[in-house]
Structure formats: C-alpha cells, structure tokens
Amino acid sequence: MKEKLIFIGLKVLYVLVAWIVALVINKVFQKLLVKNLTKKSEVHTQKLVSKLTAYSVYLVGIIVIFSIMGIRPETIITSLGLFSVAIGFAAQTSLSNVISGFFILFEKPFKIGDAIEINGYVGEVLSVDLMSITMRTFENVLVRIPNETVLKASIKNYTRFDIRRLDITVGISYGADIDKAKTVIERFLDSNPHVLKEPSYIVMTKELADSSVNLRILAWIDRREYFTAYDSIVTGIKEALDREGIEIPFPQVVVHIDNEK
C-alpha cells in the first residue's frame, strides 16, 4: 500500500514538473518571439504567431503528461466512440478557420486598430486570432467573425490610407446661375482648412433632377478628421450659398386643376 502511494505521488510529481516545464518553455519562446517579431511584424502577426506557439507547446506538454500517466492519446480518441464523427466535423471547421487565418495574415487586408466594414458590421479591429477576428462596432458592440467567413467576405478598410474623398451633392434651383454657384462653392473650399490642396477638389454639374440642378463636390480630406470635416464642409456650403442668395430648393410637385366639368 505504501509503495502504491509512493508510486502515485511520483506520478503526480512528474505531471506537475512536466506542466511547469511546458509553462517555462512557453515563456521562453514568447520572449524570443517578441524580441524577433516586434520590429519586423504587425501587431496581429505577433499575436497570431504567439498563440500558435503557445498552443503547440501546451499540446506537447499534455501528450507528455498522458505518457507519464500511462495513457496513450490515441486510446482517448478511440474511446470517444460515437463522438469521433462530431469531433471530426468540428476539427474540420477549426482547421478551415486556422488556414483562413494564415491567408488573412499573409494578405494583410487590415490590421489591429483599423476601421473596417465586413458582413454589414462597421467597427475597429480588436484582435486577429487563429479561429476568428473580433471587432468593436461604433455602437460599442463586440462582434466575433470566423476567419473562414472573413476570407470569403468583401472588406472595406476605411483607415488603410491617410486621405479620403468626400462626395457631396448639393441642389440649386433651376433659376440660379450655375457658374456663380460653382464659384461660390469653390471659393469656400479654398478657404476651408479641412480641404486638402492636393489632390485638388472638383465641383461639377451632376444632373438635372426633378426639383433642382444637382452639383457634385469631390473634396479630399485627412481621414482622421472625417466627421469634423464633413460637417464643416456641408454646413459651410449651405451658408455660403445662402449669403449669395442662391436657393437650395425643396422637392416640389406642380398640380394642375381642371375646372371644366
């Protein structure tokens, strides 16, 4: 009985030692990765490689612990019986997400901190993991999207480039002088500090609509000032046209009444 307790105690001690060794090895690997990847890789690349390394070390540690306990890993899988099919499907899905994660890693359509739109969600990328990405929408809602879905989806990256173009439509009345309206808008854009000089803005006649002549304004701005610039430009154009007496008409419907019986 005493020998049996000593045997069990040694087994437990070996298991603890094996797990501690796995933890130490993981810490060493993480430090080496941080040292070698910090200046060469994006943040999401570092995190993905770091997690993959940690999972690999822990998996090896668990296999060693099973061996110490006299349990063969394949015996555990075989004993699952009917659940093996379900596990197979789960593993297939997981593997697909992992492979998709590596494609995302190499393509780099976005990085942590970027504002993107995907599958109808718009927000900031918080993390890129082995299985999925997580986003925080502008409504402060956490969204998790599997990597396989991300790889297949169309993605808009709003912060990839430093500048963005505003596309604004302004309607003026049919009685207004189009050239004068363009001059007023151009003068305002020249004076607005949010509008970039290069690339230059464009003011053009867009269409003859039902109730107005629509002018199209294309102006480039710093993406970090997007909302402030948009508000400033739209408000400023309205005020500039008002000062010059150029009407921005309401939608109108002309009704003819026939008095004949």
Plain-language structure description:
With 261 residues, the protein is an alpha+beta fold. It has three domains: 2-79; 109-157, SH3 type barrels (Roll), CATH 2.30.30.60; 163-243, Alpha-Beta Plaits (2-Layer Sandwich). Helix content is 51%, strand content 20%. The chain has seven helices and eight strands. It has helices spanning 2-37, 43-68, 73-79, 83-107, 147-152, 178-191, 226-243, and strands at 115-118, 121-128, 132-137, 142-146, 155-157, 163-172, 202-208, 213-222. The strands form two sheets. Strands 4-3-2-1-5 form a five-stranded antiparallel sheet. Helix 1 (2-37) runs antiparallel to helix 2. The protein is elongated, with a radius of gyration of 31 Å. It starts with a helix and ends in an 18-residue tail after the last helix. The model has no long low-confidence stretch (mean pLDDT 81).
Output the keywords.
261 residues, alpha+beta, SH3 type barrels, Alpha-Beta Plaits, 3 domains, five-stranded antiparallel β-sheet, three-stranded antiparallel β-sheet
Concise account of the structure shown:
With 261 residues, the chain is α+β, with helices and mostly antiparallel strands. Helices cover 51% and strands 20% of the residues.
Summarize the SSE layout with pairings.
Blueprint lengths: L1 H36 L5 H26 L4 H7 L3 H25 L7 E4 L2 E8 L3 E6 L4 E5 H6 L2 E3 L5 E10 L5 H14 L10 E7 L4 E10 L3 H18 L18
Antiparallel strand pairs: 1-2, 1-5, 2-3, 3-4, 6-8, 7-8
